[in-house]
Write a structure and sequence with these properties.
Layout: E1 4-8, H1 15-27, E2 31-36, E3 41-48, E4 57-65, E5 68-69, E6 80-83, H2 88-92, H3 96-107, E7 112-115, H4 119-124, E8 132-133, H5 140-145, E9 149-150, E10 155-158, E11 161-164, H6 170-184
Parallel strand pairs: 1-2, 1-6, 2-5, 6-7, 7-11, 8-9
Antiparallel strand pairs: 3-4, 10-11
Family: Belongs to the peptidase C56 family.
InterPro entries: C56_PfpI-like (IPR006286), Class_I_gatase-like (IPR029062), DJ-1/PfpI (IPR002818)
Organism: Streptomyces vulcanius
């Protein structure tokens, strides 16, 4: 039986932060499912950094189907979860079903990969207190308010939690997450 990994996301997620881990984990031999508030075609965005802008810009990105709705997720069927960033976490953190899903991964000490604004979801699930994390740098105060110690680094590993700042850090993020996965939940 193939080891399954869950990606939780929604509209306005950063395209690269969904599709890079999705494809990389499939390449490693994992079965990857994307869950969203409902089963539908999701519309992702592309965030980029432009000279003269104080923050990132946003453009339309790829579309991709959600395999299942949050209400259909059985966390016990999944060995790990990936939490992409973009704008999606801003509204997804209000979803009580998603918070329950994420809490179950932390309660079972399963691997969790989060990037960019994704840590807004784990903060909403009250899972960051006492942890070391990184996130998009503008979230430093949010991470501290959630009880985490913020580190400005490509990837931060705290037990089974692997976090990263944004898509430019993908190689370090996935390298560290795959180390955790190969130990806790090898692909079969």
């Amino acid at each position: 039986m193939t080891t399954k990994i869950l990606v939780v996301t929604g509209d306005a997620a950063e395209s690269l932060e969904v599709l890079y881990p999705y494809q990389r984990l499939c390449e490693e031999g994992y079965e990857v499912h994307i869950a969203a508030p409902t089963r539908k075609k999701l519309r992702f965005v592309v965030h980029d950094f432009e000279p003269g802008f104080d923050t990132y810009t946003e453009k339309p990105g790829y579309t991709w189907p959600a395999d299942l709705a949050f209400s259909e997720v059985d966390p016990g069927q999944y060995a790990a979860v990936v939490i992409p960033g973009g704008r999606a976490p801003e509204y997804l953190r209000n979803d009580p079903e998603l918070r329950k899903i994420l809490k179950s991964f932390f309660d079972a000490d399963k691997p969790v990969a989060q990037i960019c604004h994704g840590p807004l979801l784990t903060a909403a699930a009250d899972a960051l207190s006492g942890r070391r994390v990184t996130a998009y740098p503008a979230l430093e105060l949010d991470m501290q308010s959630a009880g985490a110690t913020f580190q400005d680094a490509e990837a931060v590993v705290d037990g089974t939690l692997v976090s990263s700042r944004a898509w430019p850090d993908h190689p370090a993020w996935m390298r560290e997450f795959l180390k955790v996965l190969r130990t806790k939940a090898p692909a079969t």
